[in-house]
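Hello,

I think I submitted the protoporphyrin IX containing FE job twice by accident. Can you confirm which output corresponds to this input? Input:
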Amino acid sequence: MSERIYLLPLWLRLWHWSNAVLIITLAVTGFSLHFADPALPLVEFSLARRIHDLAGLSLAALYTFFVVANIVSGNWWQYVPKPPGVLARCWRQARFYGYGIFRGEAHPYPPTREANFNALQALVYWFIMYLVLPVVVVTGLVFMFPQFAPDQMFGFDGLLPVAMLHYLAGTVIVLFMCAHIYLGTTGVTVTSLFKMMVTGWHEH
Amino acid sequence: MGLGNLLRRVTVVAGFCLALLLAGPVQAQTDAKPIDPELIEKIRKANAECFACHTEGGLKAPPVAGMDMAKLADLLVDPAVYSHSYHGNMDCKQCHGQGYVPFPHAAGAAKQVSPCEECHAVKVFKVDQQFDKSVHAQNLKGKMSCASCHDPHVAQVAAKIGDPKAIVAQDNAMCLDCHNSDLRFAQFAPEKLSLKRKRPDIDTIHAWLPNTKLHWGAVRCIECHTPEAKTQSHEIVNKDKAQKNCVACHSTASSLKTRLYRHLATAEQQRYGFANSIILKTSYVVGATRHPVVDAAILALVGLTVAGLLGHGMVRLVLAWIRRRRSP
Ligand code: HEM
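Support: Only one job matched these inputs. Its output is below.
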């Protein structure tokens, strides 16, 4: 409780929570579309499709905002792991999650104003936000406007590779989201990191 | 039932009995394909006489002067299309009789066109039972006949077309010929309707269906507008009974398999293990054309991740509790 630093500007927190809501919505409705079956308790197909399309377009817009705001504010620099010793720092962080955390050790790299993310975090966030999410958004848009999909590919309908990429990349996002939410409980107290994402203040 | 309809009924039933009795000659007429090349050549030559006028070529270079060219322009038959149709191996005169051989055509020739049941007694008997229950038979009072949908010079058997997109194009054109044309729709609509209400726009009626144009190119109207049956039914049901449930197609148990793709079912190879892979060649159908192994792997991965994280959390909790008890 002793030390507090203001880490996260309002726009970033607003983006974060809108992003979270949209992705959970998309995951639930996307799951309902893919596993559509009258016998399963899913969101009804036509409703799922309407929500998924709306949320998908919103996420595409929100992602554009995210990229622009990161460039304008200079926040993008946080996502770049700074050498030297990136791998060694990643290893130390991973060891902490696999071992140190059980013994009650302190976080090896607590956030500072200059380096909000530890090296592992920066790498994973960079991978998810700048590699996987764009794939989901772009394949989602092609799915929505299938006239832009190739006609045929490998003797299959051209939408198949688009759909597969969308499905697999969407799965990676969902896996990340599970781990991300869980790691949110590893602050000083179980809820302190969640509070930070609301107030912007980090407690050491 | 009007008098015309009744008469037709009688002919059909009589024809059907006749077909059963004289199965030999009547069936021979419908089933025998003229494989004899000499016969085919003879038919080709005979039909060329009609094609001399009733084609684009005939319009450009009319063999006879002073014909009603505007009228002729509406009466064209494409020889290439005709040769691929059900009746492509038939002499025009088999249906149109001798009245059209001389030109100007004989006065009563139009009335002498053979009705379908003359050769297809059994088929017409079966189809009529379904067709009589359809909205068209009930609302349009005998205005609609087999030829309103099946152009005898153009239509092909679905199984012979093979490519599902081409089948969809042919079969949907049958319906859209009327349902996308104010003029043709009004010709058939009951008087009350044609005066009071205009033809409802097809895309507006189906506004609840996303991307209607995409659907019109990938599935047939009859997929949703006829009851499911072993062979394609001719009962176009009342709009309240039409299929509105997306999951009828968008699920692994997709009815597309037993409808549009029915005649390809034997070619189903489960390519690369996809469900409904026979559809996948033409269309990716969300919910239907998925891969059970990929799905199982993904579900397992998500399950393991969640279990791993929960396990991690449990161990953390327990160890923290022990540490708290130990520390004074
Ligand atoms: C993390 C976010 C997302 C997840 C987890 C997700 C997941 C899914 C899944 C599982 C499907 C079913 C596909 C299939 O059966 O193969 C699907 C369909 C679809 N997705 Fe997404 N998706 C996400 C984001 C997006 C975005 C951003 C867009 C658009 C910009 C989008 C547009 C679509 C479209 C158009 C479909 C086809 C069905 C429909 O029209 O609703 N998705 N999604």
